[in-house]
Amino acid sequence: MTARAAWQKSSFCGEGDNCVYVSAAPGTLVRVADRADPAHLVLATTQAAWADFLRVVKQSDQTA
Asked: How far apart (Å, rounded) are the C-alpha atoms in residues 31 and 42?
């Protein structure tokens, strides 16, 4: 039996289902989905690339 992915909803979500969901994948991958049904995967990336992305987003949010 395989474990089900534990999806985490972004803390920046507004009302409704327009939101980003993130889940750790086996190995060093991060899975990203953009709808209420995270089974509709739209992106898989490395943990390092995801961390870089988050760092840039947080930096740009502080300068806006």
From this structure: 8
CA-to-CA separations, 55 to 15, 44, 47, 50, in angstroms, rounded = 25, 18, 12, 9
SS3 of residue 15 by DSSP:
coil
- What's residue 47's pLDDT? 92
pTM, rounded to two decimals: 0.70
The rounded distance, in Å, linking the Cα atoms of 21 and 38 is: 7
Neighbouring-strand partners of residue 9: 21
Say if CB 34 and CB 19 are below 8 A apart: yes
CB contact at 8 A, 35 and 17: yes
Q: What is the spatial distance between Cα 39 and Cα 22, in angstroms, rounded to a whole number?
A: 11
